[in-house]
Amino acid sequence: MRLYRPRLSVFLMSVTLAGLGVAGVVHYIPFVTDVSFWLLLAGYIVLMMGVLADGI
Questions:
Q1: Over 80: is that where the pLDDT of 8 sits?
Q2: What span, in angstroms and rounded, lies between the C-alpha atoms of 49 and 45?
Q3: Whole-structure pTM value
Q4: Superkingdom of the source (predicted)?
């Protein structure tokens, strides 16, 4: 299995989603706190797709 370098936009999107998820766990943010686990999961899935697929 070949791994690829994700684009900067994909990387920043995954970091933003994961950062919101962590912020939702540490601090109370009205909507983000309820879905913090799913934001973390989405961030890592976006990063995984960027690493596994070429051109994303």
A1: yes
A2: 6
A3: 0.85
A4: Bacteria
